[in-house]
Amino acid sequence: MTETTDRDRERAEEEAAVWLVRLSEAPEDIDLREGFEAWRAASELNAEIWARTARAYDLVGKAAPRHREHWQTRAAAPRRTRNRAAGDLSRPPLRPQRRFARLSPRRLGIGAAAALALCLVIAFAPDMLLRAQADMVTATAEVRSAVLEDGSRLLLAPQSAVALRFADGAREVRLIEGEAFFEVVSDPAAPFRVVAGDSVATVLGTAFEVRRMGDVEQIAVQHGRVRVALHDSPSSSATALDAGEWLRFADTGEPLRGQRAPDDVAAWRRGELIARDRPVSEIVDVLRRYHNGAILLQDQAFAAQRVSGIYDLRNPAKTLENLAAAHGARLTEISPWLLVVTPR
């Protein structure tokens, strides 16, 4: 029996969300209905995820639509409602409309419900898990600052979580997920430690960033010095990082080390993402943390392209639209809460 990985489940959830939107847009297309049925029957995982997504859709679809002022449309006719149970959603999809402004009020309502259903299925459970482990958590597009017990300052990026331990002379922060920037008050008697996955950053007094996203951990220093080591490794194997230096750990290979301008460390503090030769998929992963909705990548060639640039985190939808247009893809706004990138 083939083991189901987290990535398999994420992919099925994304595909189910796209099917949900397309099914709602074109309920009478027999050919595309057959395509959907083939996808659902392809695996038990697909069938399970579809059942959960359809149930969430049915619950959200019964709620009154909100944020109608964002729904641009040319149609003036009143919206018609449909009383259809979740089990009746297994009808074929048409291709999504290419531009958001062309969607009718009926389709926009459906798209909004689909986006909310996606949030329920994909986002809600991980967020609850983070909150159960953490002392400090940020939501999408939220940046929080705090003064810790020792006077050090912590700035937490969106969709990030930390657990704190300040007792018995210890000063330790565990980065559960996301990004954090620290300005550490010097105390030679009590080194300040940040644990992120398998890496441990130890400092006396400095300013630095720690990032943990998936299986990738990175430490970058703005000023001062940081010693970085892996758990259970001898102190002699620690790597020292000075201002502007960074170290990245991933499960896929040896640690990578590099240099950047110290002012570029934690550029998210000023609403910027600075990328140098990074795959588009990584850029999109960051943009998801700043977009109040879901972003689906349906163009793998686009996702694999490597890019360099400075990207605006304050307007993730516009940033993604520009990125797609510059690299042979198209962004479709299914609703204010669901963005889908497809091949041009």
Number of strands: 18
Task: Write down the secondary-structure element order.
Answer: HHHHEEEEEEEEEEEEEEHEHEHEE
- What is the gyration radius calculated from CA atoms? 23 Å
The CATH topology assignment of the largest domain is: Jelly Rolls
Global shape: elongated
Going by helix content, strand content and strand pairing, the class is alpha+beta
CATH class of the largest domain: Mainly Beta
Give the CA-CA distance, first to last residue. Answer: 38 Å
Name given to the CATH architecture of the largest domain: Sandwich
Number of domains: 3
Strand content: 25-35%
The biggest sheet, with number of strands, parallel, antiparallel or mixed sense and barrel status, is: 13 strands, mixed
Helix % is 25-40%
Helical stretch tally: 7
Low-confidence segments, given as residue ranges, are: 59-112
Mean pLDDT: 78
Describe this structure in words.
30% of the residues lie in helices and 31% in strands. The protein has 344 residues and is an alpha+beta fold. It has three domains: 6-133, no CATH class; 136-267, Jelly Rolls (Sandwich), CATH 2.60.120.1440; 271-343, Phage tail protein beta-alpha-beta fold (3-Layer(bab) Sandwich), CATH 3.55.50. Strands 1, 2, 3, 4, 5, 6, 7, 8, 9, 10, 11, 12 and 13 form a 13-stranded mixed beta sheet that branches. It has a three-stranded mixed beta sheet with strand order 15-18-17, sandwiched between helices. It has a two-stranded antiparallel sheet with strand order 14-16.
Any descriptors?
344 residues; alpha+beta; Jelly Rolls; Phage tail protein beta-alpha-beta fold; 3 domains; 13-stranded mixed β-sheet; three-stranded mixed β-sheet; 7 helices; 18 strands; 31% strand; elongated
